[in-house]
Design goal:
The chain is α/β, with parallel strands linked by helices. The protein is built from eight helices and ten strands. Strands 1-10-9-6-2-3-5 form a seven-stranded parallel β-sheet, sandwiched between helices. A three-stranded antiparallel β-sheet has the order 4-8-7, with helices on one face. Helix 7 links the parallel strand 9 and strand 10. It is globular, with a radius of gyration of 17 Å. Pfam families: Glucosamine_iso (PF01182).
Length: 260
Amino acid sequence: MEVVIVPDAMAGGELIAEALAALLRRKPDALLGVATGSTPLPIYQALAAQVRAGSVDAARARVCQLDEYVGLPAGHPESYRSVVLREVVEPLGLGADSFMGPDGAAEDVQAACEAYDRALREAGGVDLQLLGIGTDGHIGFNEPCSSLASRTRIKTLTQQTRKDNARFFDSLDEVPHHVITQGIGTILEARHLVLLATGAGKADAVARAVEGPLTALVPASALQLHPHATVVVDEAAASRLKLADYFRATYAAKPHWQGL
């Protein structure tokens, strides 16, 4: 696993945005897997700035969701569809037909999960999937003890994850109990995985995912199985890494390094 330690969240966002821009220059119709929450916002802001400056053309890019709440009404501002449209699709100037996501309001949620998993494969697969990490080590909404071979499916959120996400709602009671999420097996099929983590609150989860054993107790540790996984962390999130100095030295020794 490639680990890059950056000074702060803004630097991490700019670094990953450049990797996305480089991908779009190579493959203009790339399928970009996006994550939600506050952590990836600097990525989208930096990429949108490049689009506005004319340094990259995102007109043919495609975007797909990592997960979605179950049961929120259509158009709810905190549905992940709404968030992705607001934070990614609109700033990049993409059309509605560029967007793929699971139907969290479907009557048959299981069928919607299977349909989305199939749609990702039929679209040619995800070229670069952005990920965050939960304080308990989850990726997407694959909570601890999720199968490392799991596919897109419905999951019940832990109370901790609901508390973590309550800041986006008026109260904890409004946070849904269920979500559709790409499974770990689905996530691992992306050609490149890029995880961004910032802040001391993620330090323990990052250390367990990167340096700990491969275990379903830390779903993000599954990235150790991937042939092209990059973890970008700020100094605070890197504070529990035993090999932090090694990672810094490795990055510094690659002056030719372009993107991720």
